Amino acid sequence: MEAAGARSRDARGRAEKSPPERKVYMDYNATTPLEPEVIEAMTEAMREAWGNPSSSYPAGRKAKEIINTARENLAKMIGGQPQDVIFTSGGTESNNLVIQSMVKHFHKVHTANGDTGGHPSPVDRALPHIITCTVEHDSIRLPLEHLGEERVAEVTFVHVSKVNGQVEAEDILAAVRPATCLVTIMLANNETGVVMPVPEISRRVRALNQKRAAGGLPGVLVHTDAAQALGKRRVDVRDLGVDFLTIVGHKFYGPRIGALYVRGLGEHTPLYPMLFGGGQERNFRPGTENTPMIAGLGKAAELVAENCEAYEAHMQGVRDYLEERLVAEFGKRMHLNSQFPGAERLPNTCNFSIRGPQLQGRAVLAQCRMLLASVGAACHSDLGDRPSPVLLSCGVPFDVARNAIRLSVGRSSTRAEVDLVVQDLKQAVTRLEGQA
Ligand SMILES: Cc1ncc(COP(=O)(O)O)c(C=O)c1O
């Protein structure tokens, strides 16, 4: 027997499929679809610029031009110089590259026979020390834990404030040691949307570096993983004051590659490659360039540079409406996990819990008919019903964190979709509580 409603018969008795149920995507922090202009740019590059960008005949020259334009567009998006941008496979590679590079640089300059002009270094025999915080993405946390376990580097994970979800510049500075070479702090958190005080951290680290230079201590460089901030709020490397910045295309309607910004690449700031090969990207990241993906990334960056304020205003309007509707519908049972006093946050992210013993985030989402969302970072999807370590770090109580759901809206999200989602959540809660 066919499931009721799955098929009906048309006037001639032919089986007709019922229209697919409407779905509402609110997981734009996990990934975004490609903008049509991005698909066009990629398709054109596949057709017209298939040559090797190092070749001098037209198909190769066209590819080179596309790559150069994309690099300029990325630089414009972040207020940097095109020669300071290199293309990578994505955020994970960019983050690993910064960390590995700083460790190699420290060993080259400061270990016994290092490049200190014949003088013994005050941090001789010390391991390079890196500072980060407890709510970073796994592509920062795991390489750092790995280096610590292998005894190649020492790492301090600074706790974020349980009051506002931010890491405090004061706590970062207090963690600095003689052998500290890198501070890496994300620009905005993927689960809560909280924006970190990166400009203040950079300013204070720069001031400290002047004193350290006098004592022959290594300069501390600052990296920020801007994966979640780009395309949602203005990002400018001059205001941020950072030495490195990670760019991830698929978070701003671009393809699944990325880039790394390095201030004064190879001149002011060292970068040691992880890969060795054919010399592309000035040897910093060799391998024949992926022209179509780079073309798409450049187009996505151009759209952000031109429209970021409009995207931000739209997303904030929809997200604020979502939070209003959630509170109106669920009243005191609604806990907004990402509204911290005094902390700025991304305009699109809403992390909330509906209180109740059967209402774990995963269970609620499984009962939703339309809503497509997640309980937190995609890379933590193996946590089962254990609450997100990020939310616990931010002071969200255990029982509330267990029920967390992360909704993140995008450029095309609407208030009508919000209404559908809130109704969907309501029926999911009724069903779960009816089962008790
Ligand atoms: C904050 C942050 N950094 C880095 C990444 C890694 O990007 P990718 O998985 O595309 O390498 C992500 C993606 O989820 C992210 O949210």
Structure write-up:
With 436 residues, the protein is an alpha/beta fold. It has helices at 36-48, 58-78, 91-110, 138-149, 169-175, 198-214, 237-240, 291-330, 361-367, 389-393, 398-401, 415-434; strands at residues 7-9, 15-17, 24-25, 85-88, 129-133, 154-158, 180-184, 221-225, 244-248, 258-262, 334-336, 349-354, 371-372, 404-408. β1 and β2 form a beta hairpin. α3 (91-110) runs parallel beside α4, α5 (169-175) runs parallel beside α6 and α8 (291-330) crosses α12 (415-434). Residues 90-92, 137, 139, 186, 190, 225, 227-228, 248, 250 line the site of pyridoxal-5'-phosphate (PLP).
Task: Spell out the blueprint of helices and strands.
Layout: E1 7-9, E2 15-17, E3 24-25, H1 36-48, H2 58-78, E4 85-88, H3 91-110, E5 129-133, H4 138-149, E6 154-158, H5 169-175, E7 180-184, H6 198-214, E8 221-225, H7 237-240, E9 244-248, E10 258-262, H8 291-330, E11 334-336, E12 349-354, H9 361-367, E13 371-372, H10 389-393, H11 398-401, E14 404-408, H12 415-434
Parallel strand pairs: 3-13, 5-6, 5-7, 7-8, 8-9
Antiparallel strand pairs: 1-2, 4-10, 9-10, 11-12, 12-14
Helix pairs in contact: 1-8, 2-8, 3-4, 5-6, 8-12, 9-12
